Amino acid sequence: MSRIRTASVLLVLATSVALPATSARAAEPGPKCVGYDVLEISPGLSATESTTGTVNHVGPLGEETCYGGDPLGYKATGPIGIEHHITYSGTCANPVLNGYALHHIPTADGVKTIRNDFTAGLGTFEGRKFSGAYIVRDTTGDCTSAPLTRFRADYAGYFNDNTRD
Question: How are beta strands 124-127 and 51-57 bridged, if at all?
């Protein structure tokens, strides 16, 4: 057997062992994306006092850029607009977040909007269509000397289900 053929066979065997099997009906994986959004928290997230309230997008839409594919098959013609609408409970160290994000994808046929319902904790989120990790950059409040009431969330994620509804 030639060296190239041997290397190809070994690669195929290694890949078949390393990758999980997926059914024909499994969700199509999608692109990886990075983005940000500016959010306001009402009444404010504290380090010690547990609170319940809302976390909502403010100002111009956040932006998201995707790599390695088209979100739900839509070819983006520019940055994707993003906005979040969330309810929360807990403290800065242990937040429980439930909400949705609207991904506004500009296409040649107009803007297509995808809703992603998700749950999140400290630093990670899992959604019906999109999941990933985020960091908080304080803009108003710091969870120590004053409750956090406004921040920028920077995130990296992936479309774990890249099929259209």
Answer: unpaired
Rounded mean pLDDT, 39-63: 95
Handedness of CA 157, 160, 164, 165 (dihedral sign): negative
pLDDT for 162: 84
Does residue 134 have a pLDDT over 90? yes
41, β-bridge pairs = 55
CB-CB contact of 42 with 89 (8 Å): no
What are the two backbone dihedrals, phi and then psi, of residue 17, each rounded to the nearest 5 degrees? -80, -40
What pLDDT does 4 receive?
A: 33
